[in-house]
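G., before I forget:
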Amino acid sequence: MSATLRDVAEKAGVSIRTVSNVVSDYAHVSTRMRERVLAAIAELDYRPNPIARTLRTGRTGMLALVVPEIDVPYFSQLARDVIDAAAEVGYRVMIDQTGNDHEREKELLLGENRTMLFDGILFSPLVTRAELLEMKRATTMPLALLGEHDFDGRFDHVAIDNVAAARDAVDHLLASGRSRIAAIGAQPDEEFATPRQRTAGYEAALEAAGIEVDPELMRPSAHYGRIDGYEATVELLRMRPDAIFCYSDLLAMGAMRAIFDAGLRVPEDVAVIGIDDIEEGRFARPSLSTVSLDTPFIAREAIRAIVARIDDPSVAPTQIVAPHRLLPRESTAAV
Amino acid sequence: MSATLRDVAEKAGVSIRTVSNVVSDYAHVSTRMRERVLAAIAELDYRPNPIARTLRTGRTGMLALVVPEIDVPYFSQLARDVIDAAAEVGYRVMIDQTGNDHEREKELLLGENRTMLFDGILFSPLVTRAELLEMKRATTMPLALLGEHDFDGRFDHVAIDNVAAARDAVDHLLASGRSRIAAIGAQPDEEFATPRQRTAGYEAALEAAGIEVDPELMRPSAHYGRIDGYEATVELLRMRPDAIFCYSDLLAMGAMRAIFDAGLRVPEDVAVIGIDDIEEGRFARPSLSTVSLDTPFIAREAIRAIVARIDDPSVAPTQIVAPHRLLPRESTAAV
DNA sequence: TTGTATGCGTTATCAT
DNA sequence: ATGATAACGCATACAA
């Protein structure tokens, strides 16, 4: 085993208390003592044991980040930003994947393996509102939501304005001359906030332009991967859309490939726009128009909120709207 | 605070020892006792405190996964597989990013914040061999390398055969009729195993085909992102290659975009092949030929090795070669 | 089969 | 400014 406080104390001929003071740079330590202790620490290669410290203080210095799938580009980018933002304030991050498994998601939050290992949880899930309330009841652990949900007032929460983001995307398609605008990503279950809000933005944009919403042009998709976008687009092309609004960039990447495979061109025959702004879209051919979500901002604010709550559980929950920005690129160029 | 063993013991009118036995399903507990204890546990909503347990047992149930950048698709996919493989044997995974910062990488492994928080470390870094040895000296923590290094014999290690993988890629380009084959990704520093091995495979393939290696066709690249592939390709096109072998799929994605921007076609004018098999390449246009690395296999074997070492630190290090497989797709089709 | 008591390494309280 | 010592919650050696 490695050296302990006691070992250092013996070696330096001081009390364990003094060593502890030095280690956690307590203010009132005489220079002579400090030097003696530091020498002993160096000699024994002493490292504080974070587990023991945690047992005593109740703080682990760790946060959990729960995402559906870490290898979805949006989430891996978010994770990167969260890990960086956390590191800046002295926290480390554990990542849990729910694998889009609803039960697993709930169990992760409510089950026993979650207990006390973390100082707080950052949740970026696809849960329903009802489930959120159940969680709130069941856990006293600091919990922040990041991503896209209805604001509730009971949680620290960083989200984008999904209705506006979707509307910006569709307005852009309209402005570039398209009118038969399809959508991929709606979900039958109204309880999921993100798709519902994006659908609302889509419909609002069409209605404002005096275009009737055609349910045939709206393809539901429970999962937001490339293959889902591909398959939905294959179906959709029979309806002869001149543009497709995808609820994620990954859906859009699949949609573009499906359009090419059908012998059509982007943007000449069908324009495509997504949401997320993953780097992949910038290098795609054509480059993918999208709505950029400020993940560093989201990460930073979420960390700020959760740390504030850890330090003082009684603070009022904050609800932050993260900025988004339309990024027109080649895939929606006017023809 | 939540309930402790002692609370449960009092409530059930038994000793703390008995409760502990029940919780960790010790064999010899009478049914009557167990029921009484279980009832008390349920009533108090008792959850074992993993921190206290850890202080006692020395096991945290956590592994650290160290990668350069979690949002690089190859690493996020690897992380996904590692998290899943770890979950299957009861471990959770913390992710640390070194951000390609060499100093940070070393500090993560050797610095004090690493201490005793994990039962083991999975390292997928771009470190040099000399640094690995230093690490070995400095840490007693179970450590497994995954990815691409020279086997050393001192470490548990799962790697692909990089020389063969690179050679398979270049052989494929040769077989499809290309002869001016460029390479992107070599690094000046010979200490880094992955680029060195891939360069060796590239050169071996050319030599076997009786083609002289032209240093002008080899573009070094320290970083393996899309933008790096793009920039390298812009330079490279002046040399009129008819194929480019990229040391990563991300480099290849950037290369393809640069070729299009130069008004050339893939694969007609320039064929492109990468290594990694990220999903992005399957949906790209043209789809990206690549060498697939079996990340689930890598993850599974790495977890197996590290768990074995945690359970018995004296076991001999295992060195596993993970399979790779050439995946010819559109970007290298014969013309 | 169950109870008692000790220690894991730290922080923090109470002295001095 | 520093020393002695009591927790933190659990697992386990030792007793019964």
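Residues 14-18, 21, 28-30, 33, 52, 54-58 of chain B lie near DNA strand C (CB under 10 Å from a C1'). Chain B has a mean pLDDT of 89.

More on Monday.
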